[in-house]
Amino acid sequence: MLVSQSLTFMSPTIAALLKSATDTLQATSPTPRLDAELLLAHALSWPRARLLAERSHAPAPTEVATFLAMVARRAAQEPVAYIVGHKEFFGLDLFVDRRVLVPRPETELLVELALAEAQRLDARRSAPDARPSPLTIADIGTGSGAIAVALARHAPRAQLYATDLSTAALAVAARNVAAHHLAGRVQLLHGDLLAPLPGPVDMIVSNPPYTVLAEVAPGVRAHEPWLALEGGPDGAAIYRRLVTQLPAYLRPGGAVLLEIGAWQGDLVAGLLRDTLPAATISLHQDLAGHDRVVIARV
Predict the structure, then answer these.
(1) Are residues 52 and 107 in the same domain?
(2) Any idea what the CATH number is for the domain that residue 46 is in?
(3) pTM, to two decimals
(4) Residues 279 and 183 occupy one common structural domain
(5) Looking at CB atoms within 10 Å, which of 14, 17, 20, 25 has the fewest?
(6) Contact 160, 152 (CB under 8 A)
């Protein structure tokens, strides 16, 4: 049952609105209280912390109506990020909507490892006999641009390419690149996997679709773009295509970092070994102890 519409006629306080919304969202959200706070803060254009300091404040009727409409959308399992229009990722505020997958916290591990790899590769360029050209990184299937923007912000000497098959997703990525003033260092390219790249790069990172669509949570399947989710019968269809393209697009001494599903470590590592037999391959776990990123260093 949705938040009682009687609230709109009785000037409810913030405390009452949050309690009612939390009760409403219990059945459909794993984080009902957090969702309620994020939605109400957005409806009021307040920082979330202010809600706790002004619990007795009674929002205006128009603000209450806006909040109730957002709670109804969340009760239908629409992601909070789509409702409020943004998502924090790696400390950055990113615009998101239904054209792109909502950035996940577990993908931050991919960014952390890529930044460490970029530092390693950049240090090699400091040697007297090293090439003076900038470090080049390709983010394949960029979606919202979350990975590319985070890497560009934290690896200021790198040049980024970000590819995607979806022109709609690239429009979202372009908005985030512009918002973070990175247009001069992040080049967005339309096309399939590595094909749009102008030439070989030093590092390739990707969080490709790796789910079996039938096993995706109903709320995710109903609202987020299938193109960014569907990984084929075993979730590995995109990896098989991407890995075969690596030899033509990865410079000697470079690295590949791929986010994977928790069950795909051995499978993807095997694909990389078959294609890059001289590479050193390692698996890295997320905070839950699940395999999350595979790295191949050539």
Answers:
(1) no
(2) 1.10.8.10
(3) 0.88
(4) yes
(5) 20
(6) yes
Q: Are residues 282 and 186 in the same domain?
A: yes
Q: Which two tokens stand for residue 127?
A: 């040697």
Phi then psi dihedrals of residue 129, to 5 deg:
-95, 10
Domain boundary among 43, 76, 109: 76
197 plus 141 within the same structural domain: yes
Show the domain range for 290.
99-297
Q: Which two tokens stand for residue 163?
A: 């590819």
Q: Rounded CA gap, 86 and 89, in Å?
A: 10
**Together in a domain, 48 and 146:** no
Number of domains observed in the structure of the chain? 2
Tens of pLDDT along the chain (298 residues) come to: 445 454 445 679 999 999 999 999 999 999 999 999 999 999 999 999 999 899 999 999 999 999 999 999 999 999 999 999 999 999 999 999 999 999 999 999 999 999 999 999 988 776 666 666 789 999 999 999 999 999 999 999 999 999 999 999 999 999 999 999 999 999 999 999 999 999 999 999 999 976 544 455 666 655 565 455 555 566 688 899 999 999 999 999 999 999 998 888 999 999 999 999 999 999 999 999 999 999 999 9
Q: Are residues 69 and 105 in the same domain?
A: no
